[in-house]
Specification:
Structural class: mainly alpha
Largest sheet: 2 strands, antiparallel
Oligomer: single chain
Strand content: under 5%
Shape: flat
Length: 159
């Protein structure tokens, strides 16, 4: 790892965090593999409903195995990397608090009501932001439909 002038290790957690961000940077590609899952999942049903020979069904079964592996990869990789990244970010936060406060900050006691309530409130923020995003998407879709219908009316009145 990196060493400061006194020979103390620094940047080890930050280096791990940078590596984790590199891992997170390919999550989009891993999630793109998730598109393959419904295709492979539906292939077995399509083969059975179309009454194909057993040789085709064997190929669909192999495709089902590939689907299982792909699904496990596409679910486990992002979840594991996000959990590790959040742990590393919190650890880096604790290091920064120690640096600025000049007091060792090694543990978080959730038995303290303020800390517990703060953790609950901060964990609920994702749901609040998601609700705001869904609400905004709904309003935008409604506005687009109104514009579309007005445009169609105007177009029909012209002809």
């Amino acid at each position: 790892g990196l060493l400061d002038d006194a020979g103390n290790p620094t940047g080890g957690m930050f280096g791990t965090l940078v590596a984790m961000m590199g891992m997170l940077s390919i999550v989009a590609y891993v999630l793109t593999m998730d598109i393959f899952v419904p295709i492979a999942d539906n292939s077995g049903g399509i083969v059975e409903m179309s009454q194909q020979p057993t040789s085709v069904l064997k190929i669909a079964d192999i495709l089902d195995v590939v689907r299982n592996i792909t699904e496990a990869t596409t679910k486990g990789f992002p979840n594991g990397s996000v959990v590790l990244a959040s742990f590393l970010l919190f650890n880096a936060y604790m290091d920064e608090v120690t640096t600025f406060a000049r007091v060792p900050f090694k543990q978080v006691d959730i038995a303290i009501p303020g800390v517990f309530v703060g953790g609950l409130l901060s964990s609920m923020l994702i749901f609040l932001f998601s609700a705001w995003a869904c609400n905004t998407d709904g309003r935008t879709a409604q506005d687009l439909l109104i514009i579309h219908f007005c445009t169609v009316r105007i177009f029909l009145c012209l002809f």
